[in-house]
Amino acid sequence: MSNRIKIEDNYYISATSTYADSRVFVLNNADTFGVFDLWGDINLIGKEAQGIYHAGTRFVSELEFKVNGERPVLLSSAIREENDILHADLTNVDVIINGEITLIKGSIHISRIKFIKNGMCHEKITLINYNRSAHELNFSFSIDADFKDIFEIRGIKRENRGETVQINKNLEKFTFTYLGLDNISRKTEFTFFPLPDNSIGSELNYKVVLQPLIAFELSYSISFEIGSKSIKTEQMDFYNCYKQLNIQLEKEKKQIAGITTENGFFNHWINRSRVDLISLIAHTPHGRYPYAGIPWYNTAFGRDGIITALEVLWVYPDIAKGVLFYLAQTQSKSTNYYQDSEPGKIFHETREGEMAELGEVPFKLYYGTVDATPLFIVLAGAYYKRTNDLETIKKIWKNIEAALAWIEKYGDLDGDGFVEYQHHSEQGLYNQGWKDSYDSVSHKNGDLANSPIALCEVQAYVFDAKKNASFLANALGFQALSNKLNEEAELLKKKFNEAFWDEELQCFVLALDGNKEPCRVKSSNVGHCLFSGIVNQEYVMPLVNTLFAKEMFSQWGIRTLSSEEVRYNPMSYHNGSVWPHDNALIAFGLARYGLQKEALKILSSFYQATMYIDLQRLPELFCGFERQFGEGPIAYPVACSPQAWAVGALYMLLQACIKIDINAIEKRVTFHKPVLPDFIHRIEIDNLTLGSEVAAIRLQKQIVETESSDVTIMVIKKPADWEIVIIK
Question: Residue 231: its pLDDT value, please?
Answer without folding.
Answer: 61
